Give the backbone structure.
Amino acid sequence: MFANLNSFRKTTGRLMSTIISLIRYNKASCVGVVLILGITIIAIGAPFIAIEHYAEVDIANRLQPPSLSHPFGTDVLGRDVFSRVVYGARIALGVGLLAVFVEVFVGVPLGIIAGYFGGKVDKIISALGDAVWAFPPIVLALGVVMLIGPGLINVMVAIALTYWPVFTRVTRAKVQSLVNREFILAARAIGESDFNIMLRYLLPNVIPVNIVLATLYLPAAILSTTALSFLGFGAQPPTPDWGLMLAEGASQLVIAPWIATFPGIFIVITALGFNLVGDGLRDLLDPKLKV
Amino acid sequence: MNEPLLDVRNLRTYFYLSEGIVKAVDGVSFTVNKDEVFCLVGETGCGKSVTALSIMRLVPYPGKIVGGSILYEGTDLLKLSEEEMRLIRGREIAMIFQNPMRSLNPVFTIGYQVAEAPMVHFNLPSQDAWNKAVDLIGKVKIPDPEVRAKNYPHVLSGGMRQRSMIAMMISCEPKLLIADEPTTSVDVTVQAQLMDLLLDIKRKQKMSIILITHNFGLVAETGDRAAVMYSGKIVEIGTVKEIFKEPLHPYTQGLLQCLPISFERKKELNFIPGTLPSPINPPKGCRFHPRCSHATEKCKVEEPPLIELKKGHFVACHLYGG
Amino acid sequence: MQKRGGSKLSAMLRYVTKKLLIGAVIVILVPTFIFLIMQLVPGDPIELMAGERATRERIEELKRTWGLDKPAYIQYLYWLRNLLTGNMGYSYVHKQPVAHLIEARLFYTIVLTLPALLLSFIIGVPLGVIAALKRGKFIDNLIEGVVTFFYSMPTYWLGLMLMLIFGLRLGWFPISGISGVKSAVLPILTYALPSIATSARTARTEMLEVLTEDYIRTAWAKGLPSKKVILSHALRNALIPVTVMFFLYLPWIIGGAVIIETVFAWPGMGSLLYKSIVKQDYPVVQAIVFIIAVLTVLCNILGDIIAALLDPRIRLEQEEV
């Protein structure tokens, strides 16, 4: 992927300087970075941070309010809510990142093709994207889940199929702005194939914008997948998915409100972190970006 | 004694960016007399547009006018309240901008936009203002003004849009019109027509024009007096005749030599070596010294003041004992 | 005085007609598409209905009753014909015409969504505009902060928290079901807050972009008073994309009803859709999805029309055609 050590250094260097600029000039993004780091550490270090395993049942101690031994209380099966929330970070981040990855993998190539070739191809791809995007995402995702069945991975696929058009649209716009520039015309003049042009000239130039977009749409992926889990179509028990925990907590809201409260707080923290950083990145790289 | 119409003294306008402070206009002084065409010349980025915006007090964020005074008919514009300044804009001092497509509001008709200023400044009822607008559109030589007034900006050609802008800005018969590169974005033939139009209006309305440009041809043809700017500072002021006949500042000399005048066939085009200085960290002393073939030790350390070498001919250069 | 140029009525009509025709075509394609999808869904509702110990004959009999013994394309034609006459099929679960079910619930969904939509525009847009005008100052940061906060929140959690605080702890409002006006407050609030946040965000972005445009500088240069520059020149331009986006995101907001109605046990179409999916009541699912699809198409067309009405650049493009 990196042609040589030099280009790797350059890319890392650019990444570091972008992060540093972000931190220096945008206070809100600072907070975002802290939040993201926090959640990432929690996710990676879950086995060490959690008090017990997330599926550890202890009926005798069920529905206990928060205490020293159970900072977030216990749920209806006596499981430690804190541990489940901690392990849930892994699921949230994992599923969210996977969903965004699929969206990028589907959306960006389509955007490059649409922007580069134009004409009928563009019309078809854009029409498809617009149609998918116009439809309410939850309903669409529910439809997909009806087809392929429930489950965490299936939900992730369903959400990815709902949100990919935004990547196509933005990439297409960027490609259209590049296609008439000299370096593309020059590439054609020396006989580069279309595929090569798209891969080696256009793709690298659309990466920055898509990084911003991915950061901005990761929260949406997490919110949507947890929503579907909340409805029962996503993660199945005993998976400590935050959305599922909220559903479990909803039925106990009167007697054990902590079950529903804490996972939700963490969803907000995670989404907020990425939104703040995403906004900051967008202001830094491409303030006119409209999503 | 002829009091100058506009007297800019030691104007300083800085931009506060996250990377540092850009001293876009750093101690600029010049005067503009009644009924004259005063040219502000220089390369892109030298601060001429910011100077113009400062006169109008329309410097955009994150810029601020930090010092100096701008005397218009004796009143310091920088000391006026926002409301008092508003009464001057469009009415006494007006400005036309470089890119007429983006400078016209796409959702209002041309007629409405031309009528707005008189409506606001003279309290004209809307029908009268409209008639006046149609009249003005005709004055700027747009054919079929009745019809055109109902058009939206995007259906007009570049030349017509610029004329509409002119109509808008002269509608209240200002005494001073600032024209920021008014012909840069139009064809050469239209350029000539626009300049003729401006000069015609100037004659009829006894208006002064500050013409901002990097085009020396325009300066030579239309200017009475001119000031050359470099990196936020004025390096030379004089009548256009004087400056062309006997440019004093090395930068001015360099600029004039760069003009590809094909009387004598030269092998190569002239250019001024080096590049424009960084606006955040300009060179110490005379800002031009890194590119100046006459630079001395003094030039690297001390900034030359603007002195009046001959009557009406100012220069800021140590060569002349500054 | 001609503030707006004359827009030929016929050109406008041509534009609208063209859009409506495209919409009609899509509206016909959509049920076809939905029907195909439904055919692919695994699971057999007949077997569900018949129960575990049903005999072959019972299953065949049920299939005949429900018209599911005919080949797929006949079912499709029946369905289309029925749709046109307003017959949306029969619910497997409720044993009633689907149309009845929807009729009963439509009102409740509208009661929830309409106020939320209105609030999102009436409160959200001005908030966003104010934030843009006071850019960088405290109030902008405050508005931005609150907006991003609500934007990062799952709606169902917001609903649960509101239930917890205002329903259970403070006892101000009932927390589920229908029982008079008070019971609608929490669901509407849950609906409205994120929508207000989204509107505010969009409005702020658009307003900021307009304020940096050259023509605003021209307006200042003419010496126009700030009220005129901001309200007349700036807002008029900023509202175009804001309004269009409002219509484009309407279907999304309606889609959110599924979750909120489920959380609050609100008897609207959203909770009906959810229950029907769970119980595999396909006729109902088909019908509701169809309604949502039609709504989506309508909203998009409306958005296009509004854009043409507000923006002379789009309008006049049609005239020349």
